[in-house]
Write a structure and sequence with these properties.
The chain is α+β, with helices and mostly antiparallel strands. The protein folds into three domains: 100 residues, Rossmann fold, CATH 3.40.50.20; 69 residues, Dna Ligase, domain 1 (2-Layer Sandwich), CATH 3.30.1490; 242 residues, ATP-grasp fold, B domain (D-amino Acid Aminotransferase, Chain A, domain 1, 2-Layer Sandwich). It is built from 15 helices and 22 strands. An eight-stranded antiparallel beta sheet has the order 13-12-9-10-11-14-21-19, with helices on both faces. Helix 4 packs antiparallel against helix 5 and helix 12 runs antiparallel to helix 13. It starts with a strand and ends in a 28-residue tail after the last helix.
């Protein structure tokens, strides 16, 4: 095992990786932009170095500066977390050239999985079913004929895409030109590559992903699935493990397909193979993510395996400590991504100082957080500020624990999407498990907001009425002062 790890990230994921390193007895190095000087990950690490101004292209995306810091700090390895440079083959290669271990897969595997068109071809060759679509980059004039061949509705996707960016739906031929133009623009801005391909939209589909672990000695296993269908604009918001949609037989088939996918590209490290599951229980390969996932806590809760520690062990060249038959999943886990956004105002980002904070605790509740009282939320980075995960022996218990946790969670100073999560967890379709990736489109957030406003008005009116009511005059007991609690009921403090 190496001795010192640099974490090339920020926020809650940087803190998460730093904690795993500390438990393994590894020295740690943090990097930070000018605006992140006071962040938790900077305080938690053994050493911390500045890498540039607040905008990510000038700091967290500067490969040269991060590698230079690793050399100066004499770090043996760099862990990229997720986002930023986590799936950048050039960065993984730069680490190798500098003699530093990249905690992730080989650059070739990153490049293969990152090219969605090449990945489709590779997975087809490995025997995995893929969604009907194109297997090459398309020129503008080729899109319409291919769309007619495949059939509407269609999803236009960035070949270098991920995270829901560079994706647009066209339900009719007349929608195709504008959807194509928008997808190319977003792909160019997000990935520096406007290449797109098209797939048929799978209606009523669930988004199911399988966590895999593969070492450098050819051993590959999976740790079961995660249900990721609660999405907004292709961005996941709530995840759970396992999925109510899978039978034991289907779970086995999809798990083995995920293992074949990893073997097909010679993969080693943690990874996630994503599938679409249609209403007839047919599954299709969607893409492979070559990094630690945002939603990894739910897999950790049901498997009892620390994924970050295993990722570090694999990167150091060790063999997997588990065989497939060793993996015994227990209970149910749900994760809610807490973002600094206003859900009833089209999820508009909310910035400012957090002036009050209470994070939930108690049995079966886990919070991965990158904030504290006094923390400044800025517009420079992703609005994700924390994740809440709840475990229960059953899905029902996990839902009840998550409701309790969200009720306890208090963030003052910025708006968060906690009310949105509470609304989803109280929705009957969600409770029954009868949902797919179109679930949120059917929910009327504005109506829910008005109902919340009416409830707030009713509570305010009741409080005002109670304040205007004449105070009840109660005689004081002998040797006892009048207790103010008597105005609220019959409770009182009795002196000893």
């Amino acid at each position: 095992m190496f001795k010192k790890v640099l974490v090339a990230n920020r926020g809650e994921i940087a803190v998460r990786v730093l904690r795993a390193c500390r438990e393994l007895g590894l020295a740690t190095v943090a990097v930070y932009s000018d605006i992140d000087r006071g962040c938790l990950h900077v305080r938690y690490a053994d050493e911390a170095y500045p890498i540039g101004p607040a905008p990510a292209p000038d700091s967290y995306l500067r490969m040269d500066r991060i590698v230079d810091v690793a050399k100066r700090a004499k770090a043996d390895a760099i862990h990229p977390g997720y986002g930023f440079l986590a799936e950048n083959a050039a960065f993984a290669r730069a680490c190798q050239e500098a003699g530093i271990v990249f905690v992730g897969p080989d650059p070739g595997a990153i490049q293969m999985a990152g090219d969605k068109i090449a990945a489709r071809r590779t997975m087809q060759a490995a025997g995995l079913p893929v969604v009907p679509g194109t297997d090459r980059a398309l020129l503008d004039e080729e899109v319409a004929p291919e769309a007619e061949r495949i059939g509407y509705s269609l999803l236009i996707k960035a070949a270098a895409g991920g995270g829901g960016k560079g994706m647009r739906i066209a339900c009719r031929p007349e929608e195709l030109p504008s959807a194509l133009s928008a997808a190319r623009r977003e792909a160019q801005a997000a990935f520096g590559d406007s290449t797109v391909y098209i797939e048929r939209v799978v209606t009523g589909a669930r988004h199911i992903e399988f966590q895999i672990m593969a070492d450098q000695h050819g051993n590959v296993i999976h740790l079961g699935e995660r249900e990721c269908s609660i999405q907004r604009r292709h961005q996941k918001l709530i995840e759970e493990a396992p999925s109510v949609a899978l039978t034991p037989e289907l779970r086995e088939a999809m798990g083995q397909a995920a293992v074949r996918a990893a073997r097909a590209i010679g993969y080693s490290s943690l990874g996630t193979v994503e599938f679409l599951l249609d209403r007839s229980k047919n599954f299709y390969f969607l893409e492979m993510n070559t990094r630690l996932q945002v939603e990894h806590p739910v897999t950790e809760l049901v498997s009892g395996i620390d994924l970050v520690k295993e990722q570090l062990r694999i990167a150091s060249g060790r063999r997997l400590r588990y065989r497939q038959e060793d993996i015994k999943l227990k209970g149910w886990a749900i994760e809610c991504r807490i973002t600094a956004e206003a859900p009833y105002n089209d999820f508009l980002p909310s910035i400012g100082k957090i002036t009050g904070l209470y994070e939930p605790t108690g049995p079966g509740v886990r919070v991965d957080s990158g904030i504290y009282e006094g923390f400044e939320v800025s517009l420079y980075y992703d609005p994700l500020i924390a994740k809440v995960a709840a475990w229960g022996e059953s899905r029902g218990e996990a839902i009840l624990r998550m409701r309790r946790a969200l009720n306890e969670y208090q963030v003052v100073g910025v708006k968060t999407n906690i009310p949105f999560h509470q609304m989803v967890l109280n929705n009957l379709r969600f409770i029954r498990g009868a949902f797919d990736t179109s679930f949120l489109e059917a929910m009327d957030l504005v109506k829910a907001s008005r109902e919340d406003d009416l409830s707030a008005v009713a509570v305010a009116a009741a409080l005002l009425a109670s304040q205007r009511r004449p105070a009840m005059k109660l005689p004081a007991a002998s040797g006892e002062q009048l207790s103010p609690w008597r105005r609220a009921g019959r409770w009182r403090v009795v002196p000893r």
